[in-house]
Amino acid sequence: MKIFDFHDTCCLLDNYSHPMEGWRKFKEFLTGWFPKTLTKNSSFAVNSIHMITTKIFTFLSLLVCCIFQAQTLHLYGGSNQDQYLGCLNCDTFDKDSVWNSFGDYGNVLSSKSIWNGYGNYGSSYSTYSPWSSYASYPPAIVDQDGNFFGYLTLNTYKSERSELELAQILCKYHEVIKKDISGWYDKLFR
């Protein structure tokens, strides 16, 4: 019995194939490694291979979904959390990133930046700042779907203070981060 080989076909997919056709052919390739008439227990071998390929397919599908559905975290400040303050985990080139020193939300001179030590959202004395130990209205952390992840704040008495590791690091090192925003992005995310 001849075992199917990828080299037996000129290509797995032509330009007009359905996207799942490649997975089907890959699955056929894996199951084709074992002849169906091995022994009395050949159905066991075929079923085992089928189960393994199904698990591989499921794992790869979940991996692809996770890659394309990455979670982005955003900051909203003000007394009603209606002032957008930037993306907390977007990279340094994203215009909305708090890590972009040239953008509205990462520039130490911007009124919308948590890194502006003289602004409403970055001062250690402001009730809207994450860096105030007494802030009543610190920024809220939410994802792109509106799920709430707590408040970014030094105020240990604030209920629903974020327990995200990123939030804890920002609170602990915010003074040092202000001096090298993009360098800290590299330390945290790369």
Low-confidence stretches: 1-17
Helical proportion?
Answer: 25-40%
Number of strands: 4
Distance between the termini: 50 Å
Report the C-alpha radius of gyration, rounded. 26 Å
Mean of the pLDDT scores? 81
Major sheet, described briefly? 4 strands, antiparallel
- Counted by DSSP, the helix tally is 4
Order of helices and strands: HHEEEEHH
Structural class: alpha+beta
Approximate shape: elongated
What strand order characterises the main sheet? 2-1-3-4
Determine the oligomeric state from the structure.
Answer: single chain
The number of domains: 2
The share of residues in extended strands comes to 5-15%
Explain what this protein looks like in three dimensions:
The protein is an alpha+beta fold. It has 2 domains: 63 residues; 117 residues, no CATH class. It has 4 helices and 4 strands, in the order ααββββαα. It has a 4-stranded antiparallel sheet with strand order 2-1-3-4, with no helix packed on it. The longest helix is centred in the first third of the chain and has 27 residues. The two termini are 50 Å apart.
Q: Which descriptors apply to this entry?
A:
2 domains, alpha+beta, 190 residues, 4-stranded antiparallel sheet, 4 helices, disordered N terminus
